[in-house]
Amino acid sequence: MLAIISFFASFLSVVEPSTYYQVDYKSFYQLQEVNQKINWTNLNVSLLEAAIFQCTNEQRVKYKLPVYKYATDLNKAATYHSNSMAKYNFFSHVNEYDKNMKAFYQRMKFFGGSFNGCGENIAYSEFDNSYSYLEVAHDIVELWMNSEGHRVHVLSTVYKELGCGISIKKVNTFQRVYATQDFGGKRNTIR
Questions:
Q1: How far from the centroid of its chain's Cα atoms is residue 85's Cα?
Q2: What is the DSSP string of 77-102?
Q3: What share of the chain is helix, strand, coil (3-state, %, to 5)?
Q4: What residues does 185 pair with on adjacent strands?
Q5: Beta strands of the chain (E only): which ranges?
Q6: Of 20, 26, 58, 84, which is the most exposed, with the fewest CB atoms less than 10 Å away?
Q7: At what angle do helices 45-62 and 133-145 cross, to 10 degrees?
Q8: CA gap 79, 33 in Å, rounded
Q9: Distances from the Cα of 30 to the Cαs of 26, 61, 139, 147, in angstroms?
């Protein structure tokens, strides 16, 4: 009986999204689910967000920088913004549809983040059914690495924490992935 409970406990920890952030990018890339083709009608949003996070940390390691720590509050702020861009069909750091969430620092604060230095990257790209989670994530991070302003955030020495959020929207025969990265530096203590 104990062996069965142990098996199910280990199985659950594998599929638990928070475990995606408890391994380094090399171990993450070995996961079967990250290498499977995406079924867009049954998208594992947490897995794609984690893949973008891990691909970002791969770039950090490549440039001999410390990896980002995962931040739930930044993930929530980033997801909110990606969802807003998909819902209202805009592409900007400024959300004109919600005055209380207009700027990225407002979104971060709303979800509990207060930082001495923060930043945001956004991107979108369209994909078909031939892409794996890892391929989509690599493509999106590559967009940021090929843009000087976005690359600065990915390779920042000021930021310590990162949250990645995505949303999808069907466009013709493709799936448009809206991706947001929210970065935080040193956390402020709120009293």
A1: 15
A2: HHHHHHHHHHHHT--SSS-TT-GGG-
A3: 50, 20, 30
A4: none
A5: 69-70, 115-127, 161-171, 174-187
A6: 26
A7: 50
A8: 21
A9: 7, 17, 18, 28
* Three-state SS at 16: coil
In this structure, what token pair is assigned to residue 150?
Answer: 């976005």
Q: Tokens for 40, please give them.
A: 């867009």
Task: Judge whether 169 and 176 are in contact, CB under 8 Å.
Answer: yes
**Model confidence over 132-163: pLDDT tens digits?**
999 999 999 999 999 999 999 999 999 999 99
Can you tell me which residue has the tokens 């930021």? 159
Whole-number pLDDT of residue 170? 95
Spatial contact of 66 and 34, defined as CB atoms under 8 Å apart: no
> Is residue 36 a contact partner of residue 118, using CB atoms and an 8 Å limit?
no
pLDDT in tens, 100-140: 999 999 999 999 998 999 999 999 999 999 999 999 999 99
